[in-house]
Amino acid sequence: MNILVLGGGGREHSLAWAVKQNPKCDRLIVAPGNAGIAAIAECATLDAGKPALVVRFCEENAVDFVIIGPEAPLAAGVADALEDAGIAAFGPSAAAARLESSKAFTKEVCDACGAPTAAWARFTDPTPAKAHVRANGAPIVIKADGLAAGKGVIVAQTVDEALEAVEAMFAGEFGAAGASVVIEEFMAGEEASFFVLVDGENVLPIGTAQDHKRVGEGDTGPNTGGMGAYSPAPVMTPDLQEQVLAQIIRPTVAEMARRGCPFRGVLYAGLMIDGGQARLVEYNVRFGDPEAQVLMMRLGAQALDLMLACAQGRLDDCAVNWADDHAITVVLAAQGYPGTYEKGSEIRGLEALPVDSRRMVFHAGTARADGRLVASGGRVLNVTARGDSLAEARDAAYAMVDAIDWPEGFCRRDIGWRAL
Ligand code: AMP
Ligand code: GLY
Q: How far apart are the C-alpha atoms of 33 and 243, rounded to whole Å?
């Protein structure tokens, strides 16, 4: 079959890499892709935010199955348009994607189905929002209701910081996403991510992971899109996974169906674990980046069969074959990220690295310039390895990191510390 992957980051490179290994895949197109993806797939130019253009591209290229990587095309209704055109797609409808695109919607769903999460209130006006902050004290969490490219959340340690965040959001710092603001109770604990496939009704767990959001070692410095991840996350014990399925995920899936917007795709639950109990921090309606890289490394070719079954409502027939192993990914980013950084610096040494089913460098932000490989984004490479233990996977990943010649890049040297 002919497959189109939408997106061009490390997540999409790992999705394309897994799909490509499956003999069902004939032609593989990624839009827009990047320099690493270009080595295994055709890269195409396509505005994924325009559902009609995506449908036309699929018709012109006889695409049978579309895997939608990022959240923006989902929120824009690309999965809906493909379904209307009779083209199979992996990813939820725009109505179901509200689990990521509206924090207030997610909170209402949690309340309706009894899923444990932080206490919350929604405001469309700064005066009552500030009164709420003063009444509740700090720490407290201020969130732009809508999509803000992962940046619309402020965990305020003081009341002053919270009041400033409220003002900034209503003043338009996050654009329309901040016209409505959700204020939440601060939850203490350890964060972990749980990934399940959902076909509207059936739920299939496909792995746990932990991300490293802060830019600096020891979880210091500003938040980023994620500086590294590993899977599995030992904090997500089998008992805790059962608890999360029973108390959070299955009730959410049932509530979405009840509301007439059944969820299909990957549901990524961000959890806070404290005293052996998990509460929901947020849902995402797509794979995490860089969490997908470790999940795809562990799933390999079966990822395509699972995503197809998910899109076709056949998950009750599916099982996941797990190697009892560990995967880790280390993000190499351009110096200055997540602030301002330069583009265009040359990256050397990748060709000499051995790559196989246990070691892979996924490209997140790279391009070709006069035949040279150059950095073209903030997060640039995801150096990924599997091992029988997390320590073995980590050593293999950092050995590759050390063999890459890119003086303008940096990485965290402590990915995996919580589990090691
Ligand atoms: P979100 O975009 O909702 O995942 O929030 C980004 C990050 O903010 C999360 O990964 C948490 O680290 C933190 N966070 C969000 N909500 C809360 C909360 N209610 N309590 C504590 N931390 C939170
Ligand atoms: N790595 C966090 C995310 O993809 O949202």
A: 38
